[in-house]
Automatic annotation (TrEMBL):
Pfam families: 2-oxogl_dehyd_N (PF16078), E1_dh (PF00676), OxoGdeHyase_C (PF16870), Transket_pyr (PF02779). GO terms for molecular function: metal ion binding; oxoglutarate dehydrogenase (succinyl-transferring) activity; thiamine pyrophosphate binding. This is 2-oxoglutarate dehydrogenase-like, mitochondrial. InterPro entries: 2-oxogl_dehyd_N, 2oxoglutarate_DH_E1, DH_E1, KGD_C_sf, ODO-1/KGD_C, THDP-binding, Transketolase-like_Pyr-bd. Its main location: mitochondrion. The gene is OGDHL. It is found in: Mitochondrion matrix. It comes from Astatotilapia calliptera (Eastern happy). Belongs to the alpha-ketoglutarate dehydrogenase family. Its cofactor is thiamine diphosphate; Mg(2+). SMART domains: Transket_pyr. Keywords: Calcium, Glycolysis, Magnesium, Metal-binding, Mitochondrion, Oxidoreductase, Thiamine pyrophosphate, Transit peptide. Its EC number is 1.2.4.2.
Amino acid sequence: MSQFRVLAGVLKGGGSPFLRWRAGGLTWRCWAHPKRGCSSRTDPLPAVVSNSSYVEEMYLAWLDDHKNVHESWDSFFRNIQASGPSGEADERRPSALLQGRVLSHSLDVAEKVVEDHLAVHTLIRAYQIRGHHVAQLDPLGILDADLDSFVPSDLITTIDKLGLYGLDESDLDRSFQLPHTTFIGGQETTLPLREIIRRLEASYCSHIGVEFMFINNVNQCQWIRQKFETPGIMQFTSAEKRTLLARLIRSTRFEDFLARKWSSEKRFGLEGCEVLIPALKTIIDKSSAAGIDSVIMGMPHRGRLNVLANVIRKDLDQIFCQFDPKLEAADEGSGDVKYHLGMYHERINRETDKNITLSLVANPSHLEAVDPVVQGKTKAEQFYRGDTQGKKVMSILMHGDAAFAGQGVVYETFHLSELPSYTTNGTIHVVVNNQIGFTTDPRVARSSPYPTDVARVVNAPIFHVNADDPEAVMYVCRVAAEWRATFNKDVVIDLVCYRRFGHNEMDEPMFTQPLMYKQIHRQEHVLKKYSEKLIAEGVVTLQEFEEEVAKYDKICEEAYTSSKDEKILHIRHWLDSPWPGVSRILRGRADLVKSRQMDWALGEYIAFGSLLKDGIHVRLSGQDVERGTFSHRHHVLHDQEVDKRICVPMNHLWENQASYTVCNSSLSEYGVVGFELGFAMANPNALILWEAQFGDFHNTAQCIIDQFISSGQAKWVRNNGIVLLLPHGMEGMGPEHSSARPERFLQMTKDDPDHIPVYFDVQQLYECNWIVVNCSTPANYCHVLRRQILLPFRKPLIIFTPKSLLRHPDARSGFDDLAKGTKFKRLIPDEGPASQSPGQVKRVIFCAGKVYYELAKERKQQNLDRDVAIIRLEQISPFPFDLVSEEVEKYGNAELIWCQEEHKNMGYYDYVRPRFLTVVANKKPIWYVGRDPAAAPATGNKSTHLNELRKFMDTLAQRLAAMFST
């Protein structure tokens, strides 16, 4: 009997009705659970029947009316009759069914029925679990969103795979009972296998990939299945399609307008993911309809101006005027670059006619740093409004794919999402998945299949969607908003898109992603594809489409005209654009060698190459270090025709050389710096370097710097020779792309400002906790890298590296500067006319870094080459007391000046001043020339930056002029 009970249980578990029949004056049924057996409808306890009685009762019920039993039992008894010996079927004796060959054959048939139903149920579940792996998510059709071309073996992608389930082509037109865990049947309970597969592919393998089967809540899983499996549920009315088209027009034409008017400006446009704007507006519309009246958003820089314009509805003239270099700051403060700024705006939501407040929180270039800020702001607003369920206030967080996977604060923010004192009752996360991070291929940027996998830790459903299918995106956004309103839990939308231009509009992506960008150049714009689709459907006419485009273009032009009358803060654009091709870079490098000169990149190359020849392993990691943030390094060459075919020339310099590892890292500082620190601990005979994309970014790894690098030897007697390369310099690039905060490193040095040591150079280095340098020449940079290995001990080395000096024509060194007998110069004295008559010199300017070249230019323009000496402090810490003392004595009649480009409360001044006074025994002062104290390390306003630079030079000139007039 157990076999029949199992069959009955399986059939019931698969969604079939109770097996029922009449016997003994009662209607009998078989319970879903196989151990409960069968019972009468009036008997609460299961009846215990023998094998023969169970089958006989079932058989009698079937004879009375074939509809009394499930169709599988009907098929079972029909097959028995058809295959039994002649005359046996006519006897209609149930006991005969239990004997001999007939029973054996019939049981085989029953087993096949069970196995086939189970196989189909398993197939349905396979699509629900893994269908997203074969969904058509990449608009470019060249990469796999999950980084894996493998097709799960349990998905029916070809007919021959039916064999995995014990099925074959002949079963495709057989009907199967659908389980209650699927909605693909709609009102139907059975479907042919061919139709089952077709509907599963439509639900899970088209332009939407759904990850949800890891959720451990049955109701939530059923809710999601219903949203994606129900036939015809992803339909849009003509009015909804026209609204979507209008929003897509605004998103696309806004970027086109900026590109036309300010083609040389960096704006981090949305090209390649224009659908983000209608996506956000759909989320807001649905949330507003559910009762939300305040939405707080956070996002990185890509697409921020478009979001401000078309979602927040910031006045266009207020955006456009920030591109005008002639405008002045209208308020105090340094401001920030325009794609970091936020806004607060209350307006009417036109789809719901309800008031809604939209806030976009300002965010630095630290990308995901805004995540917990947004959550805290949301929580506060909910708290003060008594919105304990998040029915009035909600948050939306936008992310880049590389940052979402690479930044630990994302994980930390997710783990706040359901803590009682921190929950905001569900956040909608929208990942703009460019499938690349700056120049780093996702295949080397993360270990997880998707960038969104971190969200699985809180059982958040993840909806992957092809961003070139606007209707699929809109549907996913609807579902996400409904999910948040229904369950008050986080949800993730993964917009799989592409980046039509480089990391910014001035960047050249063909250097590192040639195949991707060849396809992108051929890629038809989503607006063109969708407009043609709606025109073909008769939803809009070509004339209506063109009128809508012209209408928005006119709005932009009028705002542009109006913006010229504005007097508000101007935002500084970024610096130089990359060179046009790698071959030109390599030729330029070869030309330098022929002329026996080196620039910064070649000096680094020589340092690394010479160490490799000596058997020293060199490892350089960080964000985009293979090419270099400023497109100067190019240590990895990419084949322009073959994907993933690369060459690292430095690994082919010498026979039996050590290996060179250069690797773009995950978009993380905290984790990666810690990793490289550990790597450096393992082998003292290796040069391990980590480079920040900008020096400012090291602050997210401050815990590692403070607790391990600065104090590691003192706390644990652990030597470590890790090198931090931190791009530094006031270039007008905003407050987060200027200062590597040298004052912080210098504050943590342990050398005594009031005591001149009796030993210098190697012995002095041995006593310090780390070494801090700012090299002004490629040769000195090369020497300090080599010295790091040649020293008989290991100390952390902090190098403030240049940006504009990378290609500065005066920042060159000759090969003679690397000849035998040369070494790192802790201080570079003045070697010009002033040094020839030191007694006549009236001013000695000490400085560090790139400001030297600005000072030298100003000195020449004022014809003061004989009157002013400029001395470069290359090693800041430990302080070169001996060399400074020699220079002070040499220019004994001169006034001493410390000049720096950093603000007075930053940079080197607070560190060097007491040490200079110790050198001169407090007998003369050292005057400061530079920027005034400030809270931010740099301004984000172009006019302010240029004014500061001019004031900086004027102050120096006035001091010099005043001296010569007396």
